[in-house]
Every structure is written in C-alpha cells, then in structure tokens.
Amino acid sequence: MTTVNLLFILSLGAILTAFMAFGFKNFPKERWQIFATVPLVKDKIGGWKGLNLTYYGILSANAYAFALTILIILLGAYHIPISIQMRYIIPILMVSVPAARVVAWIVEKKSSTFTVGGASFTAIMVLPWVVIGINGFSDIKMPIFCFFAAISIAYTYGEALGRLACISFGCCYGKPLSETTPLIKRLFGKFNFVFKGETKKAAYASNLDGEPTIPIQAITSIIYTVAALIGTALFLSGYFKSAMLLTIVVTQLWRVVSEFFRADYRGDSGFSAYQVMALVAVLYMVAISIFMPDVVSYNITNAVPQNMPDALMYNQLAAYSILPNIIYGIEQFWNPTTIICMQIFWLAAFLYTGRSFVTSSNIFFHIVRDKI
Predict the structure, then answer these.
(1) Between 20 and 30 A from 126 (CA), which of 113, 191, 202, 244?
(2) Rounded to whole angstroms, how far apart are CA atoms 347 and 46?
(3) Domain boundaries, the chain
C-alpha cells in the first residue's frame, strides 16, 4: 500500500474516533435530541404548534453524505468517472432510501420509523442486478466487484456514523443492565448509556429514562468502523472481493448477534425479521462472489497516453489492473459540481429523516422589555 493511501486510512480513523468519542459522551443527553423547532400554526391562546427538527436527522444526513462521499472517492481512486458512477449509484439510492421506511412499516407496523437494516437488505438484493442491467447497455462497464466492495465499505461507514443518530434519538437501545447477567453488568458497569428525557424513544417506548443500558449503538459503531477501515485498506490494495466479503459478513452477522442485546421492539418473533434478512444477505453475497463473473478487462493493448479523457483512462487502467490511488479519488470528488450536489443530497436526507412526527412542541414568543 502506498504512503498516501495509508495516510488516508489513518486520517479517517482519527476523525471518526474523535467524533464518536464526542457522540458517546454527549448524545444520550436530553439536549441532543431536538435541534430546532419551526412554528407552523398559531393556536387559540397565542402560542404556536411547532415542527421539531432533530439531531437524528442531522446525524443521519451526515452518515448518508459521508457514505456517498467515500463511495465516490473509492471508485474515483480506480479512475471511474463520477458520470459513470452515478449511472449505478442513483438507481440503488432510489430503491434503498425509501425502503428504510417501507420495511419498518411492514415489520414493525410503524409509519414514522426508519430501519437501516431494511434499506441495506433491499440495496444488497438489487445491487447485482442493477450493475448487470446497466453494464448490458453501457460501452464503459462497471467492474462488478470493485463496485460491490466500494458500496459495501461506504455502507459500513454510514452504519457506523448512523448509530450516533440512534444514540441522539434514544432508539435501537440496549437492554437495561438491571435485566442482564452478572457478567454483562460487570462489563458495562462503567461504560453504559443513560438516556435522559421523556421524548427519547428508550423512555416513551420502554420506560428507560435514567436507566443504565447496554451501549449497543456504541459497540456497533466501533465494530463497523474497524471493519470499514480494514475494508478500505483491502480495497486500496486491490483485494475487492475480500473487502466486500469482510464488510458484508461483519455488518450482517453483527446485526444478528447485536439484536439479542437490544430492548427495542423488533417484531413479535424471538428471531426478528431483520436477523433473517441479515443472514440471507450474507449467503446471497457469498454466492454472488462465487458464481458471478467480474468485468475486469476490455482487451486494450495500447499503452496509456498522457491527457486521456477520464472515461478512456479508466478503461485502460482497468485492463492493466492498476491498483487504486486515493489521490485520484479525492480529485474526482473535489470539484464544485460534486460538492454542491452533495450539499443538496445532505439537505434532502435531513428533511427526510429529521422531521419528527413522534414529538410535538408549543412555542410562545414575547418581547424582552429591557432590551428595547
């Protein structure tokens, strides 16, 4: 691995570690649930009914945008132009993002809940067929396992950051320590989450306001971050299948295990639908890695000339199996059009996930007379 690639991975690890340490310490507190309230309708007593905007939305939008950024950079590192990337990324997002709410409604019968597990399962199921379908109509074809690896790594980073949103809202919470074994109590006696505030989901759904719980969201964030960083190292070293399988297996099997330590509602059966989806996803992607042929060569024999357009350069490099270089990925991402589109994407994700329908507010405005 090149020094630049290694520095990129170490920098990612340092930034994520610092952000997560801050989140683990602060986000269970009451003040980190509601970010802002927008007055909508005036009531009969002079107040306003408000729409609450949540830190859950901000942190979820951060996770979505960060994952998409990583995806663009990793594919760009393999000289895949953004214009080519978007042919494949946009259809997957159009299917998986709405699935976060649809699957939650099907499994939990709740229309105002999101499930990343349902969204990821949907994305995994459609991923191979989207790539095969678009490759069939494209002159410039996406290398299948390069794309699978990049999207799996990006998803793992997104899940790791998305758990901070869960901490803020008090959802996806662990079992109370009072109901666990002596070993679990000793392990998490000092490192646990105590959610504060009646509007935290742990409080209104399970009466766990002020109760120490297993910090399952933090454990998930740490495991996924480590897996994503190792997956990134494998990707940048050219081991695409290994990077894909590592991140898929770790995230999906941990989902199966972690739910045994959670107290939130996951359906009526002892083994939840989300656990079944996770196991199916692992088996599915293992089978795909064995039986699906990759697109790796275009039978190009000419040397790579200087100043070649990105799309042609990508074809040439793919033919010669050149290893990814993170500098090319950052250069692909770092342009005004991409950054503006990413900001729009962040805003759309925030508006989709950040409007709270399970909390409400009443706002009163008044004049501060001594400031007039």
Answers:
(1) 113
(2) 31
(3) 3-364
